[in-house]
Write a structure and sequence with these properties.
186 residues; mainly alpha; 6 helices
């Protein structure tokens, strides 16, 4: 019989918590350092949904969303003591996933989803929706309480290895998704 007791292990929680906090912090930094590009992405989403986004609201949203992402990253870091602190991050991910899915369903030609750090544009795709669903699942796992257990040196080495491997795997998957989306448009 398979048990899900490993979901309560502090090493699993720490690995997911740190990875998701880093992801949210990098996403916020990306949006804050290139607010003009992010504002254009928001304007594109508004057009997809038939909305008119006044310039003041566009600027406010391009500043507010990164702040919410930073607060979500801080909440994730606190989720070891209080599992519900991961809820804001989960809600943001669910909203982002729904917006991406609805954009795809509308079959809108949007050049940039606003979710790719760096200068390369990344159009919305089904792969991004699936990626976000996976991230939602990982973040939801943080809502489980953590079993008390002392972490040893091997746990910390495993945490470091998992963190580096996870970051590289995420960057690789994101680049493959981006390249695939761009190649399909050629």
């Amino acid at each position: 019989m398979v048990t899900l007791g490993w979901l309560h292990d502090p090493l699993v929680h720490l690995t997911i918590m740190l990875a998701m906090a880093l992801l949210f912090a990098v996403a916020a930094l990306h949006k804050l350092t290139d607010q003009a590009r992010f504002a254009l992405a928001l304007e594109g989403y508004a057009r997809v949904f038939g909305l008119s986004l006044p310039m003041r609201l566009q600027r406010a949203l391009s500043r507010l969303l990164p702040v919410l992402e930073l607060l979500a990253a801080l909440g994730l870091l606190y989720s070891l003591q209080q599992p519900l602190a991961a809820l804001p991050a989960l809600l943001l991910l669910v909203i982002y996933t729904l917006v991406l899915a609805l954009t795809l369903r509308a079959d809108a030609a949007l050049d940039d989803c606003g979710c790719n750090p760096g200068k390369q544009r990344q159009p919305p795709s089904a792969a991004l929706v699936l990626r976000n669903l996976l991230l939602c699942g990982l973040t939801a796992m943080l809502l489980w309480p953590v079993a008390p257990r002392t972490l040893g040196w091997f746990d910390l080495a495993s945490l470091l290895g998992a963190g580096v491997s996870g970051a590289l795997l995420y960057a690789l998957a994101n680049q493959l998704i981006s390249n695939h989306s761009l190649l399909r448009r050629l």
